[in-house]
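quick one
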Amino acid sequence: MIEGLPMRFPARGLPQSVRIHEVGPRDGLQNEQTVVPVEAKAEFIRRLSAAGLRTVEATSFVRPEWVPQLADAEQLMPLLAGLPASLRLPVLVPNARGLQRALAHGCRYVAVFASATETFAKANLNRSLDESLAMFEPVVGEAAAEGLRVRGYVSMCFGDPWEGPVPLPQVVRVCRALLDMGCDELSLGDTIGVATAGHVGALLGALSEAGVPAERLAVHFHDTYGQALANTLAALQHGVATVDASAGGLGGCPYAKSATGNLATEDLVWMLQGLGIETGVDLGRLLDTSAWMAGVLGRPSPSRTVRALAGADAPRPQEADRGRRGQDSHKEQ
Ligand code: HMG
Ligand code: MG
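structure w/ magnesium ion:
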């Protein structure tokens, strides 16, 4: 046990706090070979909430045949009824049918998910890029009319497994289209984890020039090439303060070849703690949650931080962070 690590050295020009958008229950579990029992999914979300995560993407109301791992969305939502009202539980909705299902379960946060490339739009949504945008437009309009907050994902922002490089203007066009149809927030997806820090800066610069402010942006890095943390730091330096991550580093997309796990929430929290950036997350409780989920899945977590802190001589999270447990955990942002 080494108390007091990581040491804190705030760096200039970074946000004071970061909202972590936890995607483990959705992006993580959608990619598992086996279907996790619905009670275990609900318990996962409960534990994430208790660890201080304030936004936990719960599931998807997609066509069940397309993602059987999340076909139990209707069974899951009622199990989450007892969670704090301030906890955001976004769900994915690809179309009007998905939105109807989400509304029937009282969801207040939804996300549509577009692609920056034609090939992935076809693979993931069975539509061309423009057809998929046309599918989303009435969904976003209706959700906004119902008072819901709408996130728009853009996948393949930094590279595509079939098309290779993705030109910045192509990404900017899709981002603009989603904002213009009424999305409140965009999440820039590096679906296959090929981004590098300079590329992140270039895309954020191009978006800023196109009138997309950093406050409306989140970043969503998969960690295939080990670049997710470096890319996150680059995004923070450009004013982004919402970061998607997955407890234990679970994740991937069944329709994108070579998509691997997301940036692990533990790795993110470790870096942010070192930078003195507030997240409200209790790292100890989060580690316990990922260790528990690894037991459910029957394999160890790929997160470097989870593995490091599982060791006997590992530094434990700072007492100050443990002490915050319960105080910050259920605050609305
Ligand atoms: P389709 O096969 O073209 O469906 O799928 P359709 O529109 O032709 O409809 C056919 C039937 O499906 C109809 O039934 C619909 O009602 C039904 P019928 O009238 O024939 O009896 N149907 C539905 N049923 C329940 N819920 C629904 C629904 N929609 C249609 N929502 C569709 C088109 C978009 C539905 C399909 O392609 C789909 O569900 N895709 C989702 C794929 C997915 O979930 N991928 C993973 C999430 S994205 C991701 O992971 C990336 C991200 O993490 C960011 C990043 O990393 O980049 C977000
Ligand atoms: Mg993803």
